[in-house]
Amino acid sequence: MQDDRYHIVIVGGGTAGWMTAAGLVRQLPGADYAITLVESDEIGTVGVGEATLPHIKLFNDMLGLDEAQFMRETGATIKLGIEFCDWDRPGDRYIHPFGAFGEPWGGVEFQNHWLRAKANGRPVAPFQAYSYAVAAARANAFELPDENPKSIRSTYSYAYHFDAGLYAEFLRRWATGHGVARIEGQVCDISRDQASGAIAGVALKSGVSISGDLFVDCTGFRSLLLAGQFDVGWEDWTPWLPCDRALAVPCAHGGDLTPYTRATARRAGWQWRIPLQHRIGNGYIFSSTFCSQEEARETLLANLDGEALAEPRLLRFSPGRRACAWRSNCVAIGLASGFLEPLESTSIYLIQAAVIDLINLMPSPRAVREGIDPRLADEFNRLTVMQYERVRDFLVLHYIANRREGEPLWDYLRHMPIPDSLTHKLELFRARAMAPNYQYGLFARDSWLSVLIGQGIMPAGYDRLADTFDLDMLVARLDDFAGRIESSVAAMSSHADFIANYCAAEGVPA
Fold this sequence. Notes:
Elements: E1 6-11, H1 14-27, E2 33-39, H2 55-63, H3 67-74, E3 77-79, E4 81-85, E5 93-97, H4 110-119, H5 132-138, E6 159-161, H6 164-177, E7 181-184, E8 187-192, E9 199-204, E10 209-211, E11 214-217, H7 226-230, E12 234-236, E13 245-251, E14 261-266, E15 269-275, E16 280-286, H8 293-301, E17 313-316, E18 320-322, E19 326-327, E20 330-332, E21 338-339, H9 347-360, H10 367-370, H11 374-400, H12 408-415, H13 420-432, H14 445-454, H15 471-490, H16 495-502
Parallel strand pairs: 1-2, 1-11, 2-7, 4-14, 11-20
Antiparallel strand pairs: 3-6, 4-5, 8-9, 9-10, 12-18, 13-16, 13-17, 14-15, 15-16, 18-21, 19-20
């Protein structure tokens, strides 16, 4: 019997491949689309993407995953945000929370009311005191958010820390159980259609050949299809993001099970700390221009919570993106499309966003006969550029807003030219306390506020509409909001108790 469905072939597994496979098989009708994933157990994956953003819950919910089961099987914990230590100056710290700062009053964004009170010399709490997620993170507390939007306990969201390798395995079981065909093997040859130049099929070392209509490149930094076949170039962002190496190592637990990621600035980069149920993931992102591999290794191993469980693993990378992510009948997702260091845990989000965009722009089964409408690729590429450039600007902000004087890397970062798009954002904030608030992509207003104010960038002015409030009433309202957060968080259970009661992992390997 002839199969006249539209055949999608995903080359490469790992987190990117199996998120793509799971998303496509969940959303595309099986009567019209056939999905095959080719992966080789001989080829390793990067697999250190252990921290996520709240969007991952939407992806898991789309698949219909049971949250507690998923967390048990991946050794997951809760993430309420990211704590940044020593980024402005040594000793300073702040949290980028997953939730709102305050609330808008009278149609005026919250930061303007807080700035007005400060400008008038009134004693107010630090800006971070007006975030429920910050308070809960610092208290090592967690409960599921209240579904009542009027409750102050609804003003935060959450993500996860999990073992990326176990997550890929979890999705593989789910996807193959829902109709994805998995073929084990290593690609040794790629055939092209002579007339159109499109990819016609891939051949494996085993002798198996797989033909398809659309090919998704999830082969990581190699970009075997997009770069290898279509010679799509790389846009290098190293001048803005000079860190180009990472050493990663797991260690044993040595303290509280914290519901947040930690990013600590070091002399030549920064160190991550990601608490899972069964271990802590650690790594040092550094610039090889300013630091040797041995120095980075010594710094990393000297700053672990517990005993190292392996020898640090070196990763080499170049920050940037492919000139386009969709060319002809080939779409790149994950590292094959681009790479931005994991400072804000965006790697898995960028995979997720690409999967959703691909679903929305998927060629119809008629494309087997008519060919792919080039406007679909154009729109996918436009959205991908937007995603990457917005994340890039946000990452660069962390680096340039530092006062770590006398350290070569940080001195360079503080004085380097920055993208025009970031200059525009900074000038708006400094003049009028206006922060980006994207409806599509990352990051929203509260995220920008956390970093801008957290690293000492304060605006000269604020929205004058805030002056319409009675000042005494405004200060009382600010005090009441911070007080309600404090009392509510004090009544929460601990993060460790939540994990133990909700999703304690059994037999998860270290």
